[in-house]
Design goal:
The complex is a heterodimer of chains A (111) and B (311). Chain A has helices at residues 3-8, 33-39, 54-62, 77-86, 97-110; strands spanning 12-16, 26-29, 44-47, 64-69, 89-93. Chain A is an alpha/beta fold. Chain A has a single domain, classed as 3-Layer(aba) Sandwich (Udp-n-acetylmuramoylalanyl-d-glutamate--2,6- Diaminopimelate Ligase, Chain: A, domain 1). In chain A, α3 runs parallel beside α4 (77-86). Chain A is globular and about 30 Å long. Chain B has 311 residues and is of the alpha+beta class. Chain B has two domains: 3-142, CBS-domain, CATH 3.10.580; 146-310, Heat Shock Protein 90 (2-Layer Sandwich), CATH 3.30.565.10. In chain B, α9 packs antiparallel against α10 (207-228) and α10 (207-228) runs antiparallel to α13. The longest helix of chain B is centred in the last third of the chain and has 22 residues, at 207-228. The chains are: A alpha/beta (111), B alpha+beta (311). The A-B interface holds A 31-38, 42, 48, 50, 52-58, 60-63, 78, 86 and B 186-187, 189-191, 193-194, 197, 211, 214-215, 218-219, 222, 275-277, 279, 281-282, 285, 288.
Chain lengths: 111, 311
């Protein structure tokens, strides 16, 4: 699934997009950074409640290409700056993390 | 204590024979005055789970020792209302704060008492030492000791490094990548790991290997920033058959390496945890993603982590 498809969905809002043709093949959810690094697959989207700049380093290390935070959360400005430096897409969801995951999962399965 | 455990204690103690009693003793000691009743002493022993107490006069001056053996004598021939003075042992064998572990070994060989009051140079009772104190001190010492003291000291102070994993000399001049870890800002965690990642990528190293190396570096870097209270360094050697990593800091060290290696164990603060760090998976992740790993640490002398990744 291309990022453009997520942006088209009204449940997601773009914060920073490197390139909307980037492909998402998989996904992972979690807030413990070590656990993310251990288990998250590459070329994936990561749903998390963490919004601080360290998530960008974690994402780029394991080649997560997109980070999505749920409703009610905001990325710190330093996080957005680092996302630009490291070519990581940032999205906000208008729903909670469970529903957001469900929507993405369904789209990936349908492919 | 059995003869076997005495023997073992004797053997291990040889390595530490110059350690001062002051470092090992339980301090302060629980003491009583000569006027105290045997009944009160019995209660103190029961509550504090101890089997003997130094008896002191004003100014913590030693005048005797009262032990469970004395209490038994009271039960047989005396009254619980009697004063300690009447039943205490007056000829007390003592050790000075400045005495060493080997002094403890010889005095306890000679007299077979369970406990010895420890006295400072003003003749005050400042502690008590039993075989139990020695054993628990030794266990704690051995627990953090992966290499013998002298050799470790060399490693921690030297700039070149002999691999603990392969024995070869990791030459400073052949370092492929190095990075100074800034520990003052938690936000900077991962800067070294991401830089190393792009460096390895440029060299055309296998993607899966890069992932393993970068995750391990990230974890080590996070530990330096979160725990060490000191700056640190990342060194990477790109060898023909392997990638070698050395991450060192000069900070407070790890008190108990074995415990720190356990999944889920962390001493991170609540604030750090709320940011997703301190899950107690850092060292286990390094162990998992590297092919070989070792930690050298001592309290107050920093941490050195060496990892090897086969190509």
């Amino acid at each position: 699934m291309k990022i453009s498809e997520l942006i088209k969905d009204k449940n997601f809002e773009k914060v920073y997009i490197v390139d909307d043709a980037i492909n998402i093949k998989n996904g992972y959810i979690g807030d413990l950074l070590s656990e993310i690094m251990r288990n998250a697959p590459g070329e994936s989207v990561w749903l998390t409640h963490q919004t601080h700049p360290n998530i960008i380093a974690v994402a780029s290390i394991v080649e997560i290409n997109t980070i999505i935070i749920p409703e009610g959360f905001e990325f710190e400005s330093e996080t957005i700056k680092k996302a630009k430096e490291n070519n990581i897409n940032l999205l906000k969801s208008r729903c909670n993390i469970f529903k957001a995951a469900g929507i993405i999962y369904t789209k990936l399965i349908e492919e | 204590m059995t003869p076997e455990s005495n023997k073992l204690l004797e053997k291990i103690s040889q390595f530490f024979s110059n350690i001062r009693i002051g470092e090992i003793m339980t301090s302060p000691a629980i003491v009583v005055t000569p006027e105290t009743s045997i009944k009160q002493v019995k209660n103190i022993m029961k509550i504090k789970k101890i089997s003997g107490l130094p008896v002191v006069k004003r100014g913590l001056k030693l005048t005797g020792i009262i032990s469970i053996e004395d209490i038994i004598k009271v039960l047989e021939n005396g009254k619980l209302e009697d004063s300690v003075e009447r039943w205490m042992t007056k000829d007390v064998k003592i050790l000075y704060e400045e005495n060493t572990l080997s002094d403890f070994m010889s005095i306890s060989q000679k007299y077979k008492f369970g406990r010895y009051p420890v006295i400072n140079n003003e003749n005050k009772v400042i502690g008590i030492i039993t075989k139990y104190d020695v054993i628990s001190w030794l266990f704690e010492k051995l627990g953090t000791m992966y290499i013998h003291d002298d050799r470790r000291k060399k490693i921690l102070e030297r700039e070149e490094y002999t691999s603990r994993l392969t024995g070869e000399l990791l030459d400073n001049k052949k370092i492929s990548f190095d990075f100074d870890i800034d520990y003052t800002e938690i936000q900077r965690i991962g800067t070294g790991a991401t830089k190393l990642k792009s460096f390895l990528k440029k060299k055309g190293i296998d993607e899966k290997l890069i992932r393993k190396v970068s995750i391990s570096t990230y974890e080590a870097e996070a530990n330096v920033v979160i725990h060490s209270e000191s700056y640190g360094k990342i060194f990477c050697w790109d060898f023909e058959d392997s990638i070698r990593l050395l991450i060192k800091d000069y900070g407070k060290g790890i008190e108990n390496v074995e415990m720190a290696m356990q999944e889920g164990f962390s001493t991170a603060s609540e604030e750090v945890r709320s940011q997703g760090f301190g899950a107690g998976m850092g060292l286990p992740n390094m162990k998992r993603f590297s092919d070989k790993m070792t930690i050298i640490s001592e309290v107050g002398k920093g941490v050195i982590i060496e990892m090897l990744f086969y190509k």
